[in-house]
């Protein structure tokens, strides 16, 4: 039987969004459909990550800007680590927030999107410090490490951009925080640009994934439309520098 991978992945997303609403797991911002869903217990999942060796050993951590990972972003700052946060849709590139240059009273605000713009600095990818841990938001993840975001591919583009600029080694751990109902026991089919996770942190457990590590080589230009590239200045700059058709 031929499986339409795109349709299958989209059905998985909608099943999880619906389940989270039905069980009262989802929380503001709503509706969760079309988002990286915020969830009850996000702070507990974040605390499990914070207690892990991958977190303790990293000094520069990239965290997505979505709501369920805000506790992670704040924890990065409170631990005295450098926070790298992509701007929404990568439209404004990347922000760097150095907690050593801020009073601790600002850490909570700085972990929000508006606060990151206020207290962070916009930094060109080539000028970022080397990233030692990546935290991504997810809608669905499997115990094998495959993940689905909200379907727009920004986490994968951020990964590819940072690899292209030499700011992210493919061996760097990639982790996520999700609710337990977002974790499935079956494989999720991958697209060529997808990466897999190393660890999954939920309110109740830590999962070391059972599958192989998959890491793209960088930006897969053949899968990007001109519209997508034109909407992200960093991609425009990269394409020009590489003379990609």
Describe it:
By secondary structure, the chain is of the alpha/beta class. The chain has a single domain, classed as 3-Layer(aba) Sandwich (Rossmann fold). The chain is built from 9 helices and 11 strands. It has helices at 5-22, 42-50, 53-56, 70-78, 107-110, 113-119, 154-164, 226-230, 233-242, and strands at residues 60-63, 82-86, 94-97, 121-123, 133-136, 140-142, 147-148, 174-177, 183-184, 199-201, 206-208. The protein has an 8-stranded mixed sheet. α2 (42-50) packs parallel to α4. The longest helix has 18 residues, at 5-22. The chain is globular, with a radius of gyration of 17 Å. The N and C termini lie far apart (36 Å). The model has no long low-confidence stretch (mean pLDDT 96).
Q: Give the CATH superfamily.
A: NagB/RpiA/CoA transferase-like
Most strands sheet: 8 strands, mixed
Number of alpha- plus pi-helical segments:
9
Q: How many individual domains?
A: 1
Q: Could you please say which CATH topology applies here?
A: Rossmann fold
Question: How are the elements arranged and paired?
Answer:
Blueprint: H1 5-22, H2 42-50, H3 53-56, E1 60-63, H4 70-78, E2 82-86, E3 94-97, H5 107-110, H6 113-119, E4 121-123, E5 133-136, E6 140-142, E7 147-148, H7 154-164, E8 174-177, E9 183-184, E10 199-201, E11 206-208, H8 226-230, H9 233-242
Helix pairs in contact: 2-4
Summed up:
The chain has 245 residues and is an alpha/beta fold. The chain contains 9 helices and 11 strands.
């Amino acid at each position: 039987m031929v499986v339409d991978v795109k349709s299958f992945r989209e059905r998985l997303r909608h099943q999880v969004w619906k389940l989270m609403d039905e069980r009262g797991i989802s929380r503001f911002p709503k509706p969760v459909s079309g988002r990286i869903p915020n969830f009850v217990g996000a702070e507990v999942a974040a605390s499990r990550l914070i207690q892990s060796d991958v977190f303790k050993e990293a000094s520069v951590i990239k965290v997505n800007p979505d709501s369920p990972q805000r506790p992670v972003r704040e924890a990065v700052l409170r631990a005295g680590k450098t926070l790298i946060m992509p701007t929404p849709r990568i439209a404004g590139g990347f922000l760097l927030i150095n907690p050593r240059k801020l009073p601790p009273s600002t850490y909570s605000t700085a972990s929000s999107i508006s606060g990151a713009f206020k207290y962070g600095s916009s930094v060109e990818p080539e000028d970022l410090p080397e990233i030692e841990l990546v935290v991504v938001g997810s809608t669905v993840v499997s115990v094998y490490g495959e993940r689905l975001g909200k379907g727009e591919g920004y986490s994968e583009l951020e990964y590819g951009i940072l690899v292209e600029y030499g700011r992210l080694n493919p061996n760097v751990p990639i982790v996520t925080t999700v609710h337990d109902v977002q974790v499935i026991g079956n494989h999720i089919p991958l697209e060529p640009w997808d990466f897999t996770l190393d660890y999954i942190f939920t309110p109740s457990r830590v999962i070391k994934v059972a599958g192989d590590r998959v890491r793209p080589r960088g930006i897969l230009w053949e899968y990007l439309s001109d519209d997508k590239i034109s909407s992200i200045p960093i991609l425009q700059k990269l394409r020009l520098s590489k003379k990609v058709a």
